[in-house]
From TrEMBL:
Gene3D superfamilies: HIT-like. This is Histidine triad (HIT) family protein. GO terms for biological process: nucleotide metabolic process. InterPro entries: Histidine_triad_HIT (IPR001310), HIT-like (IPR011146), HIT-like_sf (IPR036265). The active site is at H100. A motif (Histidine triad motif) lies at residues 98-102. Residues 9-113 form the HIT domain. PROSITE patterns: HIT_2. It comes from Microlunatus kandeliicorticis. Pfam families: HIT (PF01230). It comes from the Bacteria. One of its GO terms (molecular function) is catalytic activity.
């Protein structure tokens, strides 16, 4: 069921009402670590303004942030590749109805598209904190 701004978790994160492990912010976008990552460093890039999905616009305004964060993830985490995707609509698997682009760093131990969704999903708080510190330069992971 699509959300509006009043109950949108990503709007609340952008507004600072909910905590996140933010790795980038600019005038149009905010990027933060996914709490249930597919792989180490899985990050979401969202527009500051509420946009339901990529069909409703918003992708051009966050494109510079997507490119910046993609480079950040590969350079600082030593990823050998990266998947970028966005789901539009419930039937496509969209769960939060605020445009978001998933940036998933990829490593040699789990290559290919099938490897994107295989294996362990999720991370504990300490692991997320270590990745956040590595990405923001606040310490080593």
């Amino acid at each position: 069921m699509p959300q509006d701004q009043t109950d949108c978790i990503f709007c609340r994160i952008v507004a600072g009402e909910l905590p996140s492990r933010q790795v980038h912010a600019d005038e149009h976008a905010v990027a933060f670590l996914d709490l249930a990552p597919f792989h180490r460093g899985h990050t979401l890039v969202v527009p500051r303004r509420h946009v339901a999905d990529l069909r409703a616009g918003g992708l051009p305004e966050i494109a510079p942030a997507v490119e910046h964060v993609a480079r950040l993830l590969t350079e600082r985490l030593g990823a050998e590749g990266l998947n970028a995707f966005s789901s539009a609509g419930a039937v496509a698997g969209q769960e939060v109805f605020h445009l978001h682009v998933h940036l998933v760093p990829r490593y040699a131990d789990s290559p290919g598209l099938r490897g994107l969704f295989s294996g362990k999903h999720g991370a504990d708080a300490a692991e997320l904190d270590a990745v956040h510190a590595q990405l923001t330069g606040q310490g080593a992971a």
